[in-house]
Fold AcrR family transcriptional regulator.
Amino acid sequence: MSTKQRRLPREVREQQMIDAAIRVFSRSGYHSASVEEIAEAAGISKPMVYIYLGSKEGVFTACIHREADRLLETVRAAVEPDAAPEQRLWAGLQAFFQFVADNRESWIVLYQQARTEGEPFSTEVFQARCRVMEEITALVVSSTRSTEGGLISETDAEILAHIAAGAADALTDWLLAHPEETPETLTRRVIGLAVTAARRHTPAEPAGA
């Protein structure tokens, strides 16, 4: 016996489509995946996918935007504004790695696939990566400041932030390839490189000073 498909609010239906698309794209890849597969995975008709998200390119772009937003929201929600700088850095990085561990299909689509597909996805991913890296950079910079004059210079703090942010990004691939690793151990590795190095670093005196 057939049943009439229950009407859902547009936002709910759209999120269901993106959820299904992420599963399909992560399994089949962008080029091999089809709108028919996405519609079937979402339990809707193919025309509905086009009505809500347009072409397959539009579906893939929607996945990139939403997952970048989710990652940023996860990191921000984990950071307590009144916590000590090192605690904010720890919480933010651990939330970053935990998101990857808990959303492997999302990460495969957001970074591993999208960054290799060329335009327009490479630009979309670049912008998403910039947003995520800026968030991590802000955490690292704040953790290396001191109210008593600074552990290191502002410029050095920013350089160290980019190094730590890049390390965090690179280590997510390691996390995907080594499921025995945990977000906690990866956070410890990155903070060990960032904060400890900042505390031990002393800028060299200019020649002749």
The chain is about 70% helix and 0% strand. Residues 64-200 form a domain with the Tetracycline Repressor; domain 2 fold (CATH 1.10.357.10). The mean pLDDT is 79. The CA atoms of residues 75 and 92 lie 5 Å apart.
